[in-house]
Every structure is written in structure tokens, then in C-alpha cells.
From TrEMBL:
Matches recorded under InterPro entries: ATP-dep_AA_Ligase (IPR052032), ATP-grasp (IPR011761), BL00235/CARNS1_N (IPR041472), LAL_C2 (IPR040570)
Keywords: ATP-binding, Ligase, Nucleotide-binding
Classification via Gene3D superfamilies: 3.40.50.20, ATP-grasp fold, B domain (3.30.470.20)
Entries under Pfam families matching the protein: ATP-grasp_4, ATPgrasp_N, LAL_C2
PROSITE patterns documented for this protein: ATP_GRASP
Protein name per UniProt: Biotin carboxylase
Superkingdom to which the source organism belongs: Bacteria
Domain (ATP-grasp) ranges: 120-323
The species this protein was found in: Nocardiopsis terrae
Record lineage: Bacteria, Bacillati, Actinomycetota, Actinomycetes, Streptosporangiales
Length: 422
């Protein structure tokens, strides 16, 4: 699909899969005076027509085809910026921005953001920021690294995303099955996100404490933080189950998290991009890095939570920064915003979901979105790392406690029926 556009365009390298997430990004560009050219491997159906100048199916990991699509776009339109909305597009977007002479993170820094081993190696001279770590490519590497780092530990893909493939190791017996599963996941038959990092794993010491992400921007070397998000994850696979924005951390803890964030993004060379920094905070050891992504936070953090809490849509600032302008943020949050996932109680086939209308009727609830439709196959980790999360409830309130009450009531109203497989 393509059509003439009197407006300058922003190239979107992919979009979030759920319409509730990708529409705010498209609408933010359109409100700011731009049309969008979407370059995506598998463009979703049902995209709104008005913000789009063109949609082209191209694999961002196919360097030749993607660069040709960027060049074609530059010949057909006036391109004002390039932005990625997911980890898979960060490196192609950086290369495209450099190719067109536009603002954007440098390709070398984008590479650090996409490979957790390279990220930690770049920060190795700052041991207060990162856990002890080792690269794992062979079974011998895995055994030796676990002996060096000790238990408990975490084994995960060097280039993973979305909590895919995180194995918590509390005893040495868990190493072999985790290594075998991750070797399969990241191998030749694995997803395209691992294309440039096949079979590369990271083993590191287990960080303890509370989990958080920091949302913000770097523009011309200046770091601007939009806020800290508190996160709740599952054990042992660290699937993200709930978020709350802004954080309820005490002042000293917030200061430590913000200090880690600023030092990390500048040390990694982030500039002219949004960032989503994930970390753990322990009162005894301070804040330490989990990972730093050079793009807006997904999972409704950027698309909804920051804007609902602050009154300033985060994606509008993503567009500002990718087109060379400084972000504009609110001085103080107006309220709290949070989400809770609806998790499958068992594997099987999703038969039906009841109670959505009741959940939407709970005071404070803003949205209920389901990613799995009746008939979908539901698998649990480690067989699959996302299909067990069926949907999301988003709520707002004047206090963190009121948001928690709304989410408890709404998720409690939803009933799912899952039939055994076979």
C-alpha cells in the first residue's frame, strides 16, 4: 500500500503487534504533522489508513532488501526521521538513520543495546552497574562459567527480548536442560531476532531485589527521564505480570535507579533515541542493570502507562526525538497507572473468556485487551514464553493502592476456560 503524501514522513521499522499499542504510535506521528512509512516483516492487518503513506513488507534483518526499501522511501518522500518500536528493529533503524543523515542512535551503540554480553562487556569497567557475567557458546563454556560465577544464576539468550528464554538456575542440575532448550531456541531454526547471535547465551549472577524499568530519552547527549516503572515478574522464568507507573520506591532508591540509568545510557553511547532501561534494586547493593533497550518501552508502558500517569503521551516525544527535537515532559505525574496480565492456569486450547464486560465496569479500569482468541493453543514455559499470557487489564487511580484494587477486582472478574490438548 502506498499513496502520495504532502507531509514529510517518519519511517517506522515495525510496529507493536497489538492495535492498542501500535495505534498510539501512528496517531502521535500524525498529530505531529507527519505521515508514516511502515517497513515491517509482517505488517499487521487493520492498520488505520489516515496516518500511513505506505506499508511495505520487508525483513529488517535482510540487510540488502531493507536498505533498498529505505532508499526507495527516500526517493519517494521527504523523510524526517526513523524509529523502531521493538528490539528487532533497533539496529536496522540505526543504520537507516545513518544512511539518510537523520538523528538516531549510532549503529555501534545500537549493537550494544541488542547483545547483552556486548552490553555488559562495554560496562565491565563499571562493576557497580552490572552483575558478574560470562558468554556461553558451548556446553564447556556453560559448565566453566557456572563454576566461576556460582549459584544462583541466570542463563538467557544474549539477544533475546520480551522475557523469552530466561532460566533461573538454583542448582547445577538445571544447567543442562536450560542450555539445551536455549541452544534450540537460538539455533538455526529459532526466530529471526537471533539471526546475528545464533547460539550465543549469557550466564550471570542472579540479581535480587525489586524490579524496575526507566523510561526516557537521550537528545543531543542530554538524558531526560519520563519516570520509573515498578514491575512484577513470575518465577522461575521472569515473565512480566504487572507494571505500575510512577514507581513507589523511596527517594534514595529512586535516586540510585536514576543514577544507574544516566551512567548506563551515556556509557553505551545512546543518543537521539528513546530508552527503556531495566534494573534491579537491592537496599544493600544498590541498583544494577538487567538490560538497556534503545527504544520505547513496550507492553503498554510507553503507549499507555506513562501518558495516563503524566498527561503527556510518551510516543509524541518519541516522534520529537527521532526528528531531532527535544522531548517535552510533565513536571509531575498526575496520577498512577498500572496493568495486570491475565495468565493461563494451564496448557491446552483456549475455549472462551468470560467477564470482560464486568472487568471494564470496575472503577478505574481503562482497557481490557486480549492477545489470544478462542481456539488458540496455550503453552507454558519453557515450551513457549508468551502464549500463557492471555490478555492485559489497564487501570488508573489517584494512588498506587487504588490502582492495585481496581486491577485485583478486574482480573478477578475474568474467567477463562482451557481444554486439555489432544
Amino acid at each position: 500500500m502506498s499513496r502520495p503524501s504532502p507531509r514529510p514522513v517518519v519511517i517506522f521499522v515495525g510496529v507493536r503487534k497489538n492495535p492498542l499499542e501500535h495505534r498510539p504510535a501512528l496517531e502521535a506521528a500524525h498529530r505531529d504533522g507527519f505521515s508514516v512509512v511502515l517497513l515491517a516483516e509482517d505488517p499487521p492487518a487493520g492498520l488505520p489508513r489516515e496516518p500511513l503513506a505506505a506499508v511495505r513488507a520487508v525483513d529488517p534483518h535482510d540487510t540488502g532488501a531493507f536498505d533498498a526499501a529505505v532508499d526507495d522511501t527516500a526517493r519517494a518522500y521527504t523523510v524526517a526521521g526513523v524509529v523502531s518500536w521493538s528490539d528487532a528493529g533497533v539496529e536496522p533503524a540505526a543504520r537507516a538513520a545513518r544512511r539518510l543523515g537523520l538523528p538516531g542512535i549510532a549503529p555501534a551503540a545500537a549493537r550494544l543495546s541488542r547483545n547483552k554480553y556486548l552490553m555488559r562487556r562495554a560496562l565491565a569497567g563499571r562493576p557497580h552497574l552490572v552483575p558478574r557475567f560470562a558468554r556461553v557458546r558451548t556446553w564447556h563454556d556453560a559448565v566453566r562459567s557456572l563454576e566461576d560465577i556460582g549459584l544462583p544464576a541466570v542463563l538467557k539468550p544474549a539477544a533475546g527480548s520480551g522475557s523469552k528464554g530466561i532460566f533461573l538456575l538454583r542448582d547445577a542440575g538445571g544447567l543442562r536442560p536450560a542450555f539445551d532448550e536455549l541452544t534450540r531456541l537460538t539455533g538455526a531454526d529459532g526466530g529471526s531476532i537471533f539471526r546475528h547471535d545464533r547460539g550465543e547465551l549469557l550466564l550471570e549472577e542472579l540479581l535480587v531485589g525489586s524490579e524496575h524499568s526507566v523510561e526516557g530519552f537521550v537528545h543531543r547527549g542530554e538524558v531526560t527521564v519520563a519516570g520509573i516503572t515498578d514491575k512484577t515478574t513470575s518465577e522461575p522464568f521472569r515473565l512480566e505480570l504487572a507494571h505500575l507507573h510512577p514507581s513507589t520506591l523511596p527517594a534514595a532508591a529512586r535516586s540510585a535507579v536514576l543514577g544507574l540509568t544516566r551512567e548506563t545510557v551515556l556509557a553505551l553511547g545512546f543518543d537521539d533515541c528513546a530508552f527503556h532501561v531495566e534494573c534491579m534494586y537491592d537496599p544493600e547493593r544498590g541498583a544494577r542493570l538487567v538490560e538497556a533497550a534503545a527504544r520505547a518501552g513496550g507492553d503498554y508502558i510507553g503507549s499507555h502507562l506513562v501518558g495516563l500517569a503524566s498527561g503527556v503521551p510518551f510516543h509524541e516525544n518519541v516522534i520529537r526525538v527521532c526528528t531531532g527535537r527535544a522531548p517535552r515532559l510533565a513536571d509531575h505525574p498526575l496520577r498512577y497507572a498500572g496493568l495486570r496480565k491475565v495468565a493461563a492456569p494451564a496448557a491446552g486450547k483456549l475455549v472462551r473468556v468470560d467477564g470482560v464486560d464486568a472487568a471494564l465496569g470496575v472503577p478505574g479500569v481503562e482497557h481490557v485487551a486480549f492477545d489470544r482468541a478462542p481456539g488458540a493453543a496455550i503453552r507454558l514455559p519453557p515450551e513457549h514464553f508468551s502464549s500463557s499470557l492471555l490478555g492485559t487489564v489497564i487501570a488508573t487511580g489517584d494512588t498506587a493502592a487504588s490502582v492495585t484494587r481496581s486491577l485485583d477486582a478486574a482480573v478477578g472478574a475474568i474467567r477463562t476456560e482451557i481444554a486439555p490438548s489432544g
